[in-house]
Amino acid sequence: MTPASEHFTPLQRVLHWIMAVCILAMLFIGVGMVSTVMPKYLALVSIHKSLGIAILALALIRLAVRLRYGAPALPMDLPEPMKLAAVLSHYALYALMIAMPLIGWAMMSAADYPIVVFGGWRLPPILPQSDSLHSLLWNSHYYLAFAFFALVLLHIAAALYHALVRRDGVFESMASVSTDHEAVQPAE
Amino acid sequence: MPDFQRSLPYGSLALIAVIIGAGAAAFAYTAGWFSPQRLTPNKMVAAFAPPGGPDLGHRRNHAKGICFTGTFDSNGAGVELSKAAVFAKGQYPVLGRFNLATASAHADDATVRVRGLGIQFSTPDGQVWRSAMIDAPFFTVSTPKAFYGLLLASRSKDPDAMKTFIAANPEFANFVAWAKSAPWTGSYAEEPYNSLDSFVMTNRDGVEHVVRWSLVPEAKVVPISEDELKKRGPNFLEQEITQRVAAAPQHWTLVVTVADAGDPTADPAKAWPADRRKVEVGTLTVQKIEAERNGPCRDINFDPTVLPTGITTSDDPFPAARSSVYAKSYDLRTAEAKDYPRTAPGAKP
User: Fold this and answer.
1) Is residue B200, in this structure, part of any structural domain at all?
2) B26 inside domain
3) Which structural domain range is residue B129 located in?
4) In this complex, which of B23, B128, B299 lies closest to A129 when CB atoms are compared?
5) CB nearest B20 (choices: A34, A111, A157)
6) Among A65, A118, B55, B290, which residue's CB has the most CB atoms within a 10 Å radius?
7) pLDDT value of residue B5
């Protein structure tokens, strides 16, 4: 059940901030690598693939943790449209964190490219070669990446709005460094 | 509840706007939107396009080609250089593509000076090695940027464009000299194919060597004149290789050339001295030719950075550039598959 804590659990906070760094790096590497022909292209693509698989694994762990521990309730006085935006944007963030690596993996598979991550670990293809699927997945990966970045900016804007304007504790629920353990010891 | 109508915190809102704006600007900068001079794969691919536009559904360069399948019989000598499974003594399946270095899928064979071969070796460990080679003994220019300049100059309306280009990139004169003097042949089977780019091979003991490789034909080279070639028809190379392989498998020896310290490993426009150590590592046998439209090579991007464990890229800047540009070409042509439809029954969409 969702505990009535003011903070996310320490595990959730650690996962959030590690993934925040990974996802921002991922999005910047993505747009950077597809716009260069310099030798760094190969290094960027290699990092992009490995980081993508790392994000997929972290996102699945995070989803399980979220389902187990829930999230602090939003402030009672938060206007309904904002509450709705908060809920929907978090569904979208989770969906993208899980879908983007899978789309990338599927896209590489549909192009019959070997998928080598972490310096030598070869992933199996998850689709057969297909021109039409490759195009569909490539377009999805490309446009969803921009949607993802826009959503990340919106998320940061909302977090800062809570921190600087509303000062309602929502920002601190994720940003606090306290080892508040209320949430990991649900009253059962 | 605070009354936001009357006490809007302009300072905080402005700070948020600045942070978000800076984030968006950094992203746009990374994507190259503020850097029109950046050489992107899109620009490079666009520069290949002939005046009438690209041949949709086809590779953006080396657009005309025909598929082959066969085997690679490794003699085991390559184990000394690389731990890649393909060098262990044994026979491995290969597929590939003979091609012409032209952006037009319908070019007359006699009009294209450079011929190429793309190849994929597969080994039982699930790894593949792809290479795309050409028959010239060295590349046109020393850097990807210069190559882009060459594409622009060759399409330029300025009559002095090529002269200006050669003045700035004198190595191109060597290539022109080769193109003018090297004999033409009447068959894909009579051509050598060279990696030109250098790569690093690592053996089981971790010892590294910088290498280039070549496929040296077994077929007797019969030089023919350019005029004679023109008389043979626009597609004679594909007809000839189809008949020739149907009559008998065709062979090439895979030769790995090892650089000495100080050789120009980063510059494919510079040949290495002829006395460099050469290791014959096995024999390519081409057994079957198939048209590209429904053939097994169609789906393959012969990206030269698709390498097995035991081979990596070197300080040569071209493989990275080729990888990025080939990927763009692949993305474009697969999206245009309807413009180059497959015809076999049960063909993939």
Assistant:
1) yes
2) no
3) 40-339
4) B299
5) A157
6) B55
7) 52
Q: Cβ B334–A111 below 8 Å, yes or no? A: yes
Whether A76 contacts chain B with CB within 8 A: no
pLDDT in tens, A159-181: 999 999 999 999 999 998 776 54
**B49 assigned to some structural domain:** yes
What tokens were used for B102? Answer: 């032209």
Other C-beta atoms closer than 10 Å to the C-beta of A70 total 18
pTM of this structure: 0.93
Does B349 contact chain A (CB < 8 Å)? yes
The alpha helices in chain B, defined as continuous H runs, are: 10-30, 41-48, 144-155, 161-168, 171-181, 226-231, 236-247, 318-335
- pLDDT band of B222, cuts 50, 70, 90: very high
- A122 touches B: beta carbon within 8 Å: yes
B77 DSSP 8-state letter: G
B304 domain residue, yes or no:
yes
Q: Write the residue in B12, B39, B337 that is nearest to A132 by C-beta.
A: B337
pLDDT tens-digit profile of A80-136? Answer: 999 999 999 999 999 999 999 999 999 999 999 999 999 889 999 999 999 999 999
Whether B15 sits inside 8 A of A160 (CB atoms) is yes
Q: Which domains are present in chain A?
A: 10-184 (1.20.950.20)
B254 Cβ neighbours under 8 A, 6+ residues apart:
B72, B213, B214, B215, B280, B281, B282, B283, B284
Optimal mutation site among A35, A129, A143, interface B, most CBs of chain B within 10 A: A35
- B6 shares contact with chain A (CB less than 8 Å): no
What ipTM score was computed for the predicted complex, to two decimals?
Answer: 0.92
CATH number of the domain to which B204 belongs:
2.40.180.10
Rounded to the nearest angstrom, the minimum Cα separation between A48 and chain B is: 14
Q: How many domains does chain B have?
A: 1
Is A119 near chain B, with CB under 8 Å?
Answer: no
Which residue, among B72, B101, B106, B98, has the nearest Cα to B86 in the 3D structure? B72
